[in-house]
Design brief:
Number of helices: 1
Structural class: mainly beta
Low-confidence stretches: none
Distance between the termini: 39 Å
Largest sheet: 7 strands, mixed
Order of helices and strands: EEEEEEEEEHEE
Mean pLDDT: 96
Amino acid sequence: QAQVTESGGGTVQAGESLRVSCAFSGRTFGDTAVGWFRQAPGKEREFVAAISRGGEIYYADSVKGRFTISRDNAKKTLSLQMNSLQPDDTARYYCAKTPRIAYYASKDYLSNQNAYDTWGQGTQVTVSS
């Protein structure tokens, strides 16, 4: 599996912004879909956002309008811009990449952790009130 370096976490006050990013190695990044998941203590890991190989973007209802996912295939990077952060956003955030995939993939498919075979180590985001 490709190596992944995840960065950008930290502690912010409610209403502030943060950007988390992942850098991937390997030669198949542009042939994959990518996504973000998060996990708070005592809770299940949940879907946050994803981009298909063809560029379709999907968001969880809880972050739509506040978070923006983007990718740069030339740099093999994936980012999540998080605005208007709230205490409920406090979690460890994980980036993930699928194997080589068709251009189209549904939200249901990319919302499932099992679609992904490569994961970042996670970065902590803490939002204080």
